[in-house]
Structure formats: structure tokens, C-alpha cells
Design a protein that fits this description.
Elements: E1 6-10, H1 15-25, E2 29-33, E3 46-48, H2 52-55, E4 60-62, E5 73-74, E6 83-84, H3 87-92, E7 98-101, H4 106-115, E8 118-121, H5 126-146, E9 156-160, H6 164-175, E10 179-184, H7 187-195, E11 199-202, H8 206-209, E12 215-218, H9 227-232, E13 238-241, H10 251-257, E14 260-263, H11 267-271, H12 273-296
Helix pairs in contact: 1-12, 5-6, 5-12
The structure holds NADP nicotinamide-adenine-dinucleotide phosphate (NAP).
């Protein structure tokens, strides 16, 4: 339980509703900041504005998946007012407080470092990335279905990268009856992909594997789908780039060549906000309960 813990939830989107509910179920005292338009009445939860006074007794601050922008702005789907996290506000937090976010920009990292506050970036964690790979894979496949006139079953799919997202996606496509080629760069990944009945190849030889591909799913966060690769893809191919911005595709050349390419960021929050919120909520509360236990010992 989180009895006695004070948690400030600042801004966010539908995912935060799951976090609010879970923290409240675990008996934490929850303060919502930047939720003035939220209709969903959670009982026993107060709303306030972003001030030093509101932060001064908190044990944890929960920010949206993208914590702040480069100027410290915190987005909220539930408020039309602009909110900024500043050095001054951060200094008001107790030193033992923890700040949670999905992924922090340098601004938030230095704000926390300067105030000597622990920052937890949830999307950095293996467990969260693996859970998130499920809605990501489902969202990527949804996009492939919506933007093509063939079935996944029987199609020729290429998955680039065999990390947390690539692994789940390749296995799901294989389960749907697709022929799945996997672009890897380590022998142990090659062996695993082979064991799973997939067709692995080394990305150093990507160009020669590009032909006869219907769908390319990229999870490698660096330029991998180069003009040479695109030139070797059939015109019918669809590229769905999942890697963080700017993705791993030369989008300018893809457009010029007439190959459809789409950057698809933030799929868990788009296709399954409730599940994505639950993943965040479970992880945050688990970390907080462990922190409370450590303090007791
Ligand atoms: P990950 O586990 O690090 O997977 C990336 C994989 O690519 C790693 O296994 C890495 O190998 C491999 N790789 C890097 N360069 C390569 C190359 N030249 N050839 C072959 N493989 C290469 O990361 P992830 O969690 O799967 O996430 C992948 C990307 O998707 C990230 O940019 C992430 O931000 C993004 N993402 C997007 C969404 C969305 O909704 N669009 C959702 C989740 C994640 P090593 O193991 O050797 O490093």
C-alpha cells in the first residue's frame, strides 16, 4: 500500500487516469495539477495549480510520458492553461522526492540533477519496454492492415532490429502467418531468430534482402533504410518506422521513389491508452512501494 504517501500528478493524457486510479486504490494522497477540465470525478482527490506550495510536501511527482519540452512546458490534455516546470518549483520539492516520467528531455534531466532529485525514466526500463512492445506491435500491424490491400498472412515482412519491440513484432507477424525476415547485427540474435522459425539476415547485407518485401517495420533508431535500400524495395512496399524521431528511414527519398513510408511514434498511448497507462501505473507504484520498504529497513 502507499498509505501516507503524497503524490502529485502533473499533466498528461488518458494514460494518467490509470495512474490516478491505481495510486488512489493503494491509499496514496493524490493531488492533481493541470487537470482543471477533467470531468471524471475521482473521489477524495484534490486539484490544484502548479505552485511551490503544491509541491513542498510531495513524495513523488508523476509527469506525462514526455516529461517536459525543452523549455520546461508540461502538456496536459485536461487543461488549457500552460504549465512550466522551473528551477524554482523543483527546489520546492523535498530532497527525498522522486520524479517519474516516460522519457526525459535534457531540460528535465538537468532540472532534477541540479535540485538533487531522483528522476525515473520509465521507458528506459526493460520491463516497461517489453510490456509496451505489445501495444506497439499491435499498433504497427493495425497501420499495416489499414494501409495495404493484402493480408498479413502470406505477406513478406521485414523487421529491422530484434530488441524489445522487434522481437515481439516479429513473433506476432510470424504467428499471423507472415513470412518474416529479421534484420539483426549480432550472431546470438541470428541464432534466436533462426530458432523461432524466422529468416534472419545481417543488416550489413540489407540491400540484397530488400526485394520481394511487402512490409518493412523498422525499430533501429539510426538511418538504416537508406536511398540504396529503398531503391531495392518493390514500389508496393510499405515502410512503417517505429524508431524514435526522426526514425531510421530516408523519408525524402522514399517519397521521391513513390514508396509509402510512415513514421509511427507513440503507438501505445494512441492505440491502447488504458493498457499503456496501466503499465506505467503498475511500474510507478511498484517502485514507490519498494522505496517505502527500503526506508523502513
Ligand atoms: P531496443 O530493445 O534497443 O531495440 C533496438 C534494437 O536494434 C537493438 O536490439 C539493437 O541492437 C538493434 N540495432 C541497432 N542498430 C542495429 C543495426 N545496425 N542492425 C541491426 N540491429 C541493430 O529498443 P526498443 O525498445 O525495441 O525500441 C526500438 C525503437 O523504437 C526506439 O527508438 C524506441 O524509442 C522506439 N519505440 C517506438 C514505439 C512507437 O510507438 N513507435 C514504441 C516503443 C519503442 P543492440 O541490442 O546490439 O543494441
Amino acid at each position: 500500500m502507499l498509505t501516507g504517501m503524497q503524490i502529485g500528478i502533473i499533466g498528461g493524457d488518458a494514460r494518467q487516469l490509470e495512474v490516478i486510479q491505481k495510486c488512489s486504490e493503494l491509499d496514496a494522497t493524490v493531488v492533481l495539477i493541470g487537470f482543471d477540465n477533467l470531468q471524471n470525478g475521482f473521489s477524495g482527490i484534490s486539484k490544484t495549480e502548479l505552485t511551490a506550495e503544491a509541491l513542498k510536501d510531495l513524495d513523488a511527482v508523476i509527469l506525462p510520458a514526455v516529461g517536459t519540452d525543452d523549455q520546461g512546458r508540461v502538456d496536459s490534455l485536461f487543461s488549457s492553461q500552460e504549465m512550466y516546470l522551473t528551477e524554482e518549483l523543483m527546489a520546492a520539492l523535498p530532497k527525498q522526492a522522486t520524479v517519474f516520467t516516460g522519457m526525459a528531455k535534457p531540460y528535465l534531466r538537468s532540472l532534477c540533477a541540479n535540485a538533487d532529485i531522483v528522476l525515473v525514466e520509465l521507458l528506459d526500463r526493460d520491463d516497461v519496454a517489453i510490456y509496451n512492445s505489445i501495444p506497439t506491435a499491435e499498433g504497427a500491424i493495425m497501420m499495416a492492415i489499414q494501409n495495404s490491400d493484402i493480408t498479413i498472412h502470406g505477406s513478406s515482412c521485414m523487421v529491422l532490429g530484434f530488441g524489445r519491440t522487434g522481437f515481439t513484432l516479429a513473433r506476432t507477424l510470424h504467428g499471423m502467418g507472415a513470412h518474416v525476415k529479421v534484420g539483426i547485427h549480432r550472431p546470438e540474435y541470428y541464432a534466436r531468430a533462426h530458432e523461432m522459425g524466422l529468416s534472419p539476415f545481417y543488416t550489413s547485407e540489407l540491400i540484397s534482402h530488400a526485394s520481394k518485401t511487402d512490409f518493412v517495420f523498422n525499430t533501429i533508431p539510426s538511418l538504416i533504410i537508406t536511398p540504396q535500400v529503398i531503391a531495392n524495395l518493390p514500389h508496393r512496399a510499405l515502410i512503417i518506422d517505429l524508431a524514435s524521431k526522426p526514425g531510421g528511414t530516408d523519408f525524402r527519398f522514399a517519397e521521391k521513389r513513390g514508396v509509402k513510408a510512415m513514421l509511427a511514434p507513440g503507438l501505445p498511448g494512441i492505440v491502447a491508452p488504458k493498457t499503456a497507462g496501466r503499465i506505467m501505473a503498475d511500474t510507478i507504484t511498484r517502485i514507490m512501494m519498494q522505496q517505502a520498504k527500503d526506508k523502513e529497513e
